[in-house]
Give the backbone structure.
Amino acid sequence: MGLLEVDRLSVGIGRLTLLEEITFEVDRGEILGLVGESGSGKSLTALAIAGLLPLIGARVTAGAVRFDDTDLTRLDEYRLRKFRGRRIAFITQNPMTALDPLQPVGEQVDVVARLHLGLPADVARSRTIEILTQLRIPEAATIYRQYPHQLSGGMKQRVVIAMALAGEPDLIVADEPTTALDVTVQAQIIHLLTSLVRERGLALVLITHDMGVVAQCCDRVAVLYAGRLAEQQGVRSLFAAPAHPYTHALIDCIPKDGMARGSLTGIAGSVPSVAHFPSGCRFHPRCIGRQSVCEASVPAATALPGGAVACHFPLNGDARHG
Amino acid sequence: MTAYIVRRLLMLVPVFLAVSVVIFLIIHLIPGDPVDNLIKIGSGPEQRAAIVARYGLDRSLPEQYLIWLAGLLRGDLGTAIVAQRPVSTLIAQALPHSLALGGLSLLVSAGAGIVLGAVAMRYRDGPIDQAIMGGVLLGSTLPTFWLGLLMILLFSVVLGWFPVSGARTWSSLVLPVMTIGLAGTALVVRVTRIAMIEAAQKDFVLLLHAKGLSPSRIRLRHVLRHALTPVVTILALRIGWILGGAVTVEVVFARPGLGTLLIKALNQHDYPVVQACLLMLAMAVMLGTLVGDILQAAIDPRVRANLK
């Protein structure tokens, strides 16, 4: 039984269903990669886990988010706040806009410990500086007093991570934590997050569209497509033998050594918008192996060794399409 | 910060000179002159010429301007031609009334406006919001002179709570302040509400929620603070306006004030008085802008960073 179990979770806004029956779990010391193109519902899943859907006017319509045996979808806002920041921390996509520009960054970290751990101001302050130092921020005491606009993107993301760690959480949900950073800093941040998980036994849900990052650090991978789970597997078997054609296509988009110039391909077409989800398997208009049944009926999730796939014609290890 | 304020004050000097030229030219280029108000009916052209000469109105405009400016720099605003009293005395009599009325209205509209704007934002699209925004619509569309009359009718004539007019007691301030304050409040409510709604959609607010802070704390300590930037700008612009913009209300409530003084002097072409009044108003606008900019810098560290 995992620390976090997302169980057939459906999310909607008004009459639209944005996420349908998303299921995955993640345990302590484990990194789950949540991947998919823009618009596949990754960020929405993150918001659902943190109970922040009402902020964007969305709500859970079915299913459960079980965290340490508590169904978060059944908690009221007040009790949910005891989890947020304390046991479940959130790292947003863009560190440039994630911090309040009017407040010194140190105080923004302090507040988590003061709120959730009840620490007095001076203790929270020295603890913040300690965390900042652990995150390899040079001259943490100086950084503490600075405003967000005085820090670089990588530094800001470290502050955001410090904010996440300040409540001593069990689970961190990181929504594309490196997308807005330049490549060298990306690697540092990913390395930092990975070591935090390994050293502290945190669980990490890492949302990304970068399959390279997934291959580098994730233990398990859940692939989302157009609001549905396409496939879930351990990272090795997923890369060795993707079962869903979509996963296969995603992996094919990673540039490899020795590739001829111009031979890198994308996936034709784009993720359909919520209002125009295709019938049957939502990937069928872009799938090279589609057959008439794909258009007619929704594929049920079928078990794989250590995972599941939702496809009428799952690929096996060596019989790849294309 | 101090260096910045000093620099800004020094920058006011050329602006002050430019404004004084414009004011001087405007009033002197209007047809007619104060002498028309002085000469007795039936007096001849030589009497008129004598009066014109007495006030130096026969000299060239640049000469007249320099004489006025020299007096100004010595702190001498001159003598009112028609009213026959030192301009400084006239201003000293009118200014406290204007400051009391304008200052209190500004405080009322800032306080009530920010509170109501925040409440409207909190209950956005609900009945409370709609009620407040309905009031705002009334407040921003009702002409103040008419609103003033309605206030007098209700609170003075029917209820008898406050004096109908005049400026002798503090209670006579209540109705004029409410009248002017309502329009200002309406403006501030709208700006506060919109600015808060906008600020609430920023990324960092999501992260504040994710930290487990309570929504009310996020609204008051973060969202409202961001929303204050445009509100301060609006209020600063009104500082200049409240000194002279309350003419209609001053007339309705028969209160003395800078606005009334200015209008009267304009009708009589009383150059020194008009010039002094306009100069006061221009100074108020300039100082208001300065205060607004300083407040902005106090609120936002990014603005402070740009000052250096």
User: Anything to note?
Assistant: The mean pLDDT of chain A is 86.
